[in-house]
Design a protein that fits this description.
367 residues, alpha+beta, eight-stranded mixed beta sheet, six-stranded mixed beta sheet, 9 helices, 30% helix, globular
Length: 367
């Protein structure tokens, strides 16, 4: 049996654990010092901006396309295995436009997406008011509607991935901290391709180690002296309860404008977010309540009916942003064969989790 350990049970690590659990001949351990989805995953809004993204080629688009395709099979697969429903908004994403040249900018992308089998609709202001009358802002001059993009509850999805992985034989250890990673070289030829993990619970020897611990990845790999740096970017969000749905009850897409998301969830409730707060010169990032209030007011400026709502919850999380290289980091750790990094997804962890998991699976499967 090939022994594999995955550190980190956020959306990335949990997706990797599940995809690997579908392969034969693997002994898999998933480790997290906290509970699943308790880090940046738990603060995510789960908006999957794939088709509506301006990524059109290279790794950026390939990852998005791979994830979109996998999500269509993954959700029913997990629901069938766990018996638990996973909330998915299949009514698309609506991006509001504020500049006069928006049509020229989007027509070429819509044409490209059509050639790839996806639909993007370019709406005039009249189209928008007819379909989404809750949008009342003079600056909005039109919109782009992507009916095939999705929004998923990231916490429930992660919990389902963990449950399904455990059903498939993955050993899940939560509340367990990895204290040290020690390369083991039985001879000069294998160049340290086995590793001993010293945890608060046991010592574990593995053939492959996957580090998917978000910002916690840095402290794990620093003793191994890699050149990988990440910074925390904090995001705050809030949940609003209304007495009625916004606009048409039977048409509730995610609405986004100027980087503010209005996300329908259930029972006339909506998530609003998220802030983007960078660390100070000392590397610290502290939540600023006035920035969360600013995001709320921006959402109200787009959809005045939100003013009638009651804030029933606020939350925050720190997202891992690579410093000096593109997000995300999916690669083998230099000089350490069989240590794979799957981290630094910044604001696209939920979107890119399936594609990341498939890349890690294929790397191990084909080695």
């Amino acid at each position: 049996m090939t022994r594999i350990a995955i550190i980190g049970a956020g959306i990335i690590g949990s997706a990797i654990a599940y995809e690997l659990s579908l392969l034969d001949g693997l002994n898999i351990t998933l480790i997290d010092e906290k509970s699943p989805a308790s880090g940046s995953t738990g603060a995510a809004l789960g908006v999957l901006m794939g088709i509506i993204s301006h990524k059109t080629k290279g790794r950026g688009w390939k990852l998005r396309q791979s994830s979109l395709q996998r999500y269509e099979t993954l959700i029913p697969e997990l629901e069938g295995l766990t018996g638990n429903p996973i909330p998915v908004n299949r009514q698309g994403i609506l991006m509001l436009c504020f500049n006069d040249d928006f049509r020229d900018r989007w027509e070429s992308l819509a044409k490209l997406r059509a050639s790839q089998g996806y639909l993007l609709e370019i709406w005039t202001k009249n189209d928008l008011l007819k379909r989404c009358p809750q949008i009342q802002n003079e600056r909005v001059i039109g919109a782009i509607y992507s009916p095939q993009d999705r929004q998923i509850d990231p916490t429930i999805l992660t919990q389902s991935l963990v449950t399904a992985a455990a059903k498939n034989g993955v050993n899940c250890q939560f509340g367990v901290k990895v204290q040290n990673i020690v390369p083991i070289a039985s001879d000069a030829s294998n160049n340290g391709q086995s590793y001993q993990l010293q945890t608060t619970q046991e010592s574990l020897t593995v053939d492959w180690l996957i580090i998917a611990a978000g910002l916690g990845s840095t402290s794990l790999i620093t003793p191994l002296k890699p050149i990988v740096k990440m910074q925390p970017v904090l995001g705050q969000a809030l949940q609003i309860k209304l007495n009625h749905p916004l606009g048409e009850a039977n048409f509730q897409p995610v609405i986004t404008g100027e980087d503010v998301h209005i996300v329908p969830i259930k029972n006339d409730e909506y998530w609003i977010g998220a802030t983007v707060e960078f660390p100070d010169q000392m590397g610290q990032v502290v939540p600023e309540l006035e920035l969360l209030e600013q995001v709320k007011q921006q959402a109200i400026a787009l959809c005045p009916l939100l003013r009638e709502g009651t804030v029933i919850k606020t939350w925050l999380g720190k997202r891992p942003r690579p410093d000096g290289e593109p997000a995300p980091i999916i690669k083998e750790l230099p000089d350490y064969p069989h240590i794979l990094l799957a981290t630094g997804h910044y604001r696209n962890g939920v979107l890119l989790a399936p594609a990341t998991a498939l890349m890690i699976r294929d790397k191990i499967k084909n080695s």
